[in-house]
Task: structure prediction
Amino acid sequence: MLARFGQREIAILVIVLSLLGAGLWYTGWYRNAQTRIQQLNDEISQLETQKQLGLAARRAQPQLEATIRQYETQIAEFLRALPPREEFASVLNALSDRAKATGVTIRSIARSPAGSPVEDVRAINVTLSLESPFPELYVFLGKLESLRRFSTIDGLAMSLGETESINPELSANLTMTIYVYEGKAPQPEEGGTGQ
Result:
């Protein structure tokens, strides 16, 4: 059969078969290989980014661990400084003593439990009904700041009493939250000083 074809036809047939083979090779292997190479390059880029992040995290790890130890120490100191729940009466006595020392009259004290997001720490809402002229009340509020108890003043409502006086008596409702510790007493750190 090939004998019937001349040189020209055989050359054309070889060229067509070569082009067909090159086309099949390009679509079947070369393009797939290029796609796979691109995928591998993308994976290498991602792994390089992850490697850089990992190396940065490794370099930052000692500082992070030191910061965590510092926060744990601060938390332990905070918990040691909180009054235990059984000493809550002494906190109320301290409030009463400060009021007497500044000339403020406490008419009533009401307390109610409040929620606390910290484990073993209980918040207690305290409402004080006070009577005094403004200067004494102002001094009393300043003394509350120096109590060194963990408390927050949530509100102060004042109403004016007798208006003919130069220094009228004020009726005030002071609401505050006092935090007490209910858990096991935290141990002082080795080599540290306990409170």
Summary: Residues 191-195 have pLDDT under 50 and may be disordered. The chain has two domains: 7-81, 85-181.
